[in-house]
Design goal:
globular; Peptide Methionine Sulfoxide Reductase, Chain A; two-stranded antiparallel ribbon; 218 residues; alpha+beta; single chain; 7 helices
């Protein structure tokens, strides 16, 4: 019995130490200076996490002015994250999308409006059936102007809903592109069970809320 108790104590101590190290690494990410992604061929890039990246990618690709949305990982402290590692919740990363857009057609502010209109803004650590830190909501800013837009929107939405808004606000550091089979997943697999029952209904709810921002073919 004494040996068992000693082992349990060591396990608890190791777990606490490990969690403290993870929290310290995550705090360093949150407190870092944001990295600005320069325009490329007149196109800007923005980064959002809001549950399953299959869903979020499809939402943003329906918006006028968005050229492409790419699924990946961001917000954590682990180099070269994979889908399997991200799903453990130990990488610090959340499933995220990189939105490539024309700022002359759609503004960052509108992309933030799209973000909140396409989710349950009060759900913590997940969206719908997807739960865990890897599915948490994060908006990434690249400068003070973007940060103010995000914080103003969060504050206004909190008053409207009379609830705390779950989205975290992080300085953008790095985006890691997800595995090829995740890209355009909803469009390529419309009959897959999760896509049919979760992704497509989520996209349709967003379309009903913001029809004015949709591309003509959506």
């Amino acid at each position: 019995m004494k040996n068992i108790l000693s082992t349990l104590v060591l396990v608890v101590l190791f777990s606490c130490q490990n969690n403290a190290q993870i929290n310290e690494k995550q705090q360093a990410v949150i407190n870092a200076e944001p990295i600005v992604v320069p325009l490329e061929n007149g196109k800007a890039r923005a980064y959002f996490a809001s549950g399953c990246f299959w869903c979020v990618e499809a939402v943003y690709e329906s918006v006028k002015g968005v050229d492409e949305a790419i699924s990946g990982y961001s917000g954590g402290f682990t180099e070269n994250p994979t889908y399997e590692l991200s799903n453990t919740g130990a990488t610090g990363h959340a499933e995220a999308v990189e939105v490539i857009y024309d700022p002359n057609v759609v503004s960052f502010k509108t992309l933030v409006d799209v973000y909140f209109a396409s989710q349950d803004p009060t759900q913590i650590n997940g969206q719908g059936p997807d739960k865990g830190s890897q599915y948490r909501s994060i908006i990434f800013y690249q400068n003070d102007e973007q940060k103010k837009i995000i914080e103003d929107k969060k504050s206004a939405l909190s008053k409207i809903l009379d609830a705390k808004i779950a989205a975290e606000v992080y300085p953008f550091q790095k985006f890691w592109k997800a595995e090829d089979y995740h890209q355009n997943y909803e469009r390529l697999h419309p009959n897959q069970g999760y896509v049919r029952n979760v992704s497509i209904p989520r996209l349709n709810r967003f379309k009903a809320k913001m029809p004015e921002v949709l591309k003509e073919n959506h």
